[in-house]
Amino acid sequence: MRADAARNLELVLSTGARLLADDPSASIAAIAAAAGVDRRTVYRRFASREELLAAVYRARYDAVEKAIEAARLREAPVAIALHRYVEGIIAVNRAWPVEMGRMLTEETLRERRRRLIGEVDAFLRRATDEGLLRSDLPTGWVGTLLPPLMLHAAEELSDLSAAQAADVVVETLLRGVGAQRPGDRSGGGR
Questions:
Q1: Domain 1-47 fold
Q2: pLDDT digits 0-9 by tens, 135-186
Q3: What global pTM score does this model have?
Q4: Rounded distance, CA 135 to CA 128, Å?
Q5: Integer angstrom CA distances of residue 36 from 19, 29, 65, 133
Q6: Is the fold of 1-47 the same as that of 59-175?
Q7: Per-residue model confidence as pLDDT tens digits over 35-60
Q8: Could you give the CA distance from residue 25 to residue 77 in angstroms, rounded to a whole number?
Q9: Where does residue 6 rank: exposed (0-12), middle (13-18), buried (19+ CB within 10 A)?
Q10: How far apart are CA 76 and CA 39, in angstroms?
Q11: Domain residue spans in the chain?
Q12: Residue 106 CA, distance from chain mean position
């Protein structure tokens, strides 16, 4: 693919992600116009809106895979890997703001999603084994909490960089939101 064609494809996909997140019924013509390309260019690449949507989902998963790879979940120190992972996923959520419920039903992505979740779950077990995360929580609890924290950080902390938003998420995950320090049971209670 020529460099300009690759740029146009990336632009169409990222614009499509943004528009479809705001309006799931956005047309190919609207996406092409917002991306600044001719709609025939989009139709040459995608025969239907559903094909375009599937390509947007694949592009999002490509970005998630790159973020997981960059975090070095298996070899980096766990605190550093956690921050890198959270920062990377916040950046992905901002760049590819697709409607998650619909994306999760996409048949072709299920195995890929399972594999990525498995990698993160293995990392969270490692973080627990190494003492960064509490071991007395129900199995899978941290893995359940982390995705919505990252999604909300991407959306609600838009005035912060991805790194700064990751600081907030990691601090919230590791320290909670209570005013009491762990072990301090005096004062503030009934």
A1: Arc Repressor Mutant, subunit A (1.10.10)
A2: 999 999 999 999 999 999 999 999 999 999 999 999 999 998 777 665 655 4
A3: 0.84
A4: 6
A5: 13, 10, 28, 46
A6: no
A7: 999 888 888 888 888 888 888 888 99
A8: 44
A9: exposed
A10: 45
A11: 1-47, 59-175
A12: 16
| Structure tokens given for 44 | 């040459």
**What is the rounded distance in angstroms from the CA atom of residue 96 to the CA atom of residue 77?**
28
For residue 131, give the 3-state DSSP assignment: coil
Q: How far apart are the first and last CA of the chain?
A: 67
- Residue position matching structure tokens 């072990």: 183
Q: Nearest to residue 169, comparing CAs of 179, 185, 156, 187? A: 156
Residue 158 per-residue DSSP state? T
Q: Which fold has domain 59-175?
A: Tetracycline Repressor; domain 2 (1.10.357)
Give the model's pLDDT for residue 52. Answer: 87
State the Cα angle at 118 between 52 and 72, rounded to 5°: 90
How far apart CA 27 and CA 121 sit, in angstroms, is 37
